Amino acid sequence: MDNARAQIKRKIGVRLWLSGGWLTFLVLAAIFAPLISPQDPLAQDLFTSRLPPFWVDGAEPGYPLGSDSLGRDVLSRIVFGTRIALSVAFIAGTITCLLGATLGLIAGYFRGWPDMLISRLVDIWMAFPPVLFAILLIAVMGTGLTSIIIAIVVIDWTRFARVIRAEAIGQSAMDYVASAQVAGRTRFSTMFREILPNVLPTIAVLLTLEMGIAVIVESILSFVNLSISTDQPTWGGMISEGRVSVHQAWWVLIFPLLTLFLTVLSFSQLGEGLKDHFDPVLK
What does pTM read for this prediction? Predict the structure, then answer.
């Protein structure tokens, strides 16, 4: 039994290290993008268009992952696109977490009319198809990073609210909550000082998953030209450009698609690893 538990813990550790390592690498790449990018991501040169990656015949120095149809360096555009993807992930994910988790705590702990009001609002909100709702919001507010973040927050806060509400209901029935109330603590003090710390592991898992979803949403919107300016490098925009010339320059599509896949997978695996790490049965 102990050996099996140790093996599970090692697998969890490997999962956390791999996913956390990739995300840390992306964060460092985004911070130091101007220093590590071999070319200007917006510079166009038709004489260097569709250069292959460095291991393929016909490659040129300075374009390690090749160039697109306008001669722009693929690696530099991926690196600068990381800034946009992670900005949306961290900002939208954090705001969504704060809004949804707070409403979920209030609904699950206070019950009564706050629970009824918030639960009905969640049910109505979740009736809308999320991607179509996001496109509609962007069409109304206009393109831009702020609009994307607002759209993600408006759509995804319900996920936090429903899960944290259920967690708060379960924690409210525990003896330590009754003891805090007998000791004279206010309901708000009990909620934030007693219940909140016990639902933080669930919030952490949901937050990492939400960041991965935010990256996907931003990529979808940029794929259909509803993200930021088309001149700025985004992973979704690169994928959209690459699919047109996939038979002549496959690297323009494959490399940003692979980066997107690994990033979303890392956020997902980080969330799963945190869930397993905080699992009281394994502890």
Answer: 0.88
